[in-house]
Write a structure and sequence with these properties.
5-stranded mixed sheet, 156 residues, alpha+beta, single chain, Aminopeptidase, acyltransferase
């Protein structure tokens, strides 16, 4: 199977949205996935682009996986690449697609001269943790994630 990794375009958003929904179901958080296809398209390709993404596509043009990322800034490290989601369709896993997506992300990180590339993984997601360790990722369990949810922000 020949896989091409390429930057995403507006026509890819429905497939990306479906992959994110698949991830939310896997992570037992389907109700948390509230962004619509139209909103996602606006957030990626509107006047204020919040994220970029890569797609893994087969010879037939089917999207089998994706990596959604954005750039942030660390006062310690400078520009950083944050990987929000990496998803490969369940029936396409263990075929090297995740590795290809990471290879391209690392090329982007190197080109942009980022000080760090980071992402999160649920502590119970053993297959993903094993994959990241195999890639050489450092897992840092010393930080606690904090957040304000939309409802809190709106009512503040």
């Amino acid at each position: 199977m020949s896989i091409q990794i390429r930057p995403g375009n507006p026509q890819d958003i429905p497939a990306i949205h479906a992959l994110v929904r698949e991830l939310a179901i896997y992570e037992q958080a389907e109700a948390e996935h509230t962004v619509s296809i139209e909103e996602m398209k606006e957030h990626a390709f509107g006047p204020q682009a919040y994220f970029s993404f890569l797609v893994a596509e087969n010879e037939q043009g089917q999207i089998l996986g994706m990596a959604l990322y954005f750039f942030s800034y660390s006062t310690w490290k400078g520009p950083c690449l944050y990987l929000e989601d990496l998803v490969v369709k369940e029936d396409c896993r263990r075929q090297g697609i995740g590795q290809l997506l990471f290879d391209k992300l690392l090329q982007i990180a190197k080109t942009k001269k980022v000080g760090r590339m980071s992402w999160q993984v649920l502590d119970w997601n053993a297959p993903a943790i094993a994959f990241y360790k195999k890639l050489g990722a450092q897992l840092d369990e010393s930080w606690i994630n904090c957040q304000f949810r939309k409802e809190f922000i709106e009512n503040y």
